[in-house]
């Protein structure tokens, strides 16, 4: 290993990159571990067959679902109207004012936010109140205050990406597509939220700007990388926050902070104007107080976009998940044991969530345990290579711009062989098809734990042995990372608390473009449970 580390160090030096000597062996070992997973998967597939573009794969599998019907539920013709939503007994201005007060009084307070746009938000709220008084209601988000992860373009402003590398960047000329769409739907942007440095930490680590702290216990992490979203919704600052999910960065803070989080199907929501991390895995999704609120935000954001060629050419989704289903939903569930995969508390929460679904009339079918570590390693290979390529210029200029943990992860990507990256991409459609056949079968969704346990202590995620920290981070995201590689939608919902009083969650994994059934399932779950209604003392 020592010789391998020296070879890697010399090779990178020839290309004007620096591999920190103290980290060289760890980084080489991590790359070797990823390569082992890829070689094992290559043996299972005919690698001479032409690869299918992943966007085409998602569309094909969704069309096959519709064509075969496979006992999928349809939605009734029961209408929905804005008036049928819970009537608001206060104005948008009053809501924004209350949100501003909550930021100052409810922990973690200002740590959840980089910038609060109080004056702009109040002015927009008053404008929307006037529109409502005139009978002009843009939709369910009309006048609702939201937070934005500080990685989305906002005209006239520099998004920090949670990093100092953006210090000299020019202000954005226009809003990111999702920001423009949310504004058009009537959402009020309250401000721009904390995030892990460059969206590269599952705990919410950001040494320079403040690491995320859990609203249920500020001695514990918030989860990341959309840490501000988890903190702000969990603390009751705003009902909805918009984050990104490349390996769990919406679902992890949602799970650890006791709120709901949706990662849509890959390429369903435009990435135009969003910070890129790993374009093959990046997704934008909402964190919210409920599945219904997540659904409204998703419906406002999703749809084809000329600014993002990778975005699927599909129309804006209709909120059919608010309607009644014509038959009970069907879910796939696992036989789990307490251990490395889940703690005893998480095992109990998972069993209780499955029991609640069954009691509510959802059909539960047992399926084999998926190899989440393998899917996670395949995704980590894409993330390592793509993130390093995107940061090539800064890595050559000044490595002091990065925190140590982030630098280790980016440097790892410089050593990923091209053939491993290519194999991870071209095997993706086949691995997805095999996953659906083995672990979802004819179910509408697969029920997984969101995390192995509740949020770890912040002190345990900073300093100490770097290799052990990375193993801990990998374990924290073991149930989420692989879902990004598979490109499937995932919905994290609160499902109880551990013995330390910290939130636990399960996630519902849908079929390609199966957000309607996923949201319907989540809505049904939250109609028969109260976990999402609980808030920190």
Provide an overview of this structure.
- The chain is of the alpha/beta class and 537 residues long.
- It has helices spanning 2-14, 24-42, 54-68, 92-105, 118-133, 177-184, 227-234, 251-257, 291-301, 344-359, 372-390, 392-397, 404-413, 418-426, 428-440, 466-476, 481-486, 515-527, and strands spanning 113-116, 145-149, 188-193, 213-214, 217-221, 240-244, 260-263, 284-288, 330-333, 363-366, 445-449, 490-497, 503-510.
- It has an 11-stranded mixed beta sheet with strand order 1-3-2-6-8-7-12-13-11-9-10, sandwiched between helices. A two-stranded antiparallel sheet has the order 4-5.
- A hairpin with a 2-residue loop joins strand 4 and strand 5.
- Helix 1 packs across helix 2.
- The radius of gyration is 22 Å and the shape is globular.
